[in-house]
């Protein structure tokens, strides 16, 4: 059975405009297109669209989704199992955040007492959730599930003072990078200071530091547009400069 693009849009919740775009980039081609240019989709295309939506829910870029789905050895069953596990982890993180917020609400209603460290649990859970949604896939692929979990546990253990120190360290790092961009010299004392600041900033959440891990993080800053835009948001070239410094000093 074939469906029109309008019917597919109704079934899936994906707009006809988006479906046309998916066709343009060869992410989801229709089963056939008639002489008038109308697109028609069959069961194979519906199944592929379902996989696209699953991967989009995990915040993968369209180009990456296409690479995955176009692999000769792509298995729908294996992909569904992976989706299921990742969504279970996401569910657990959200439930932890909800529990923390509920506890905080009870505290403000005077129903319970909270230790000072507990008051920041909801905030830190939220930070972890946002980080997972934005970068979780790439970080896990590069460093593995155990390393990511260890980093999250370490972040949850940070005190209010630790969080303030972490924030001020990053602010100073950006300030030094701004100065560095006016006098680029990877062998300068300023470059060494920037490296030390970044290493210090990593120490707040990185459970097992190594030069190799540090270099890998630097490579992500220039290899992933999301990381790059984060560092370049104030001064273009900051991500590249920071990576060059990391590659030079992380030994």
From TrEMBL:
MF terms (GO), sorted A to Z: DNA binding
Domain HTH merR-type, first and last residues per copy: 2-71
Name by which UniProt lists this protein: MerR family transcriptional regulator
Record-annotated membrane-spanning stretches: none
Sorted UniProt keywords: Activator, DNA-binding, Transcription, Transcription regulation
Pfam family, one: TipAS
The keyword Transcription appears for this protein: yes
